[in-house]
Amino acid sequence: MIDKVRQLKQKMRGEASAHRARQPNAEYLSRQIFQQLVTLPEYTHACTLMLYIDVRAEVHTRWFLPTAWDQQKRVVVPYCENGQIELFWLKSLDELAPGTMGVLEPKRELRHDDSRGITPVELDLVVTPGLAFDRNGSRLGYGKGYYDKFLHQLRDDATKLAICFECQMFPEIPVLPHDVRMDMVVTERAIYTAGGVLLHCEE
Question: Can you list the domains of the chain with their CATH numbers?
Answer without folding.
Answer: 2-200 (3.40.50.10420)
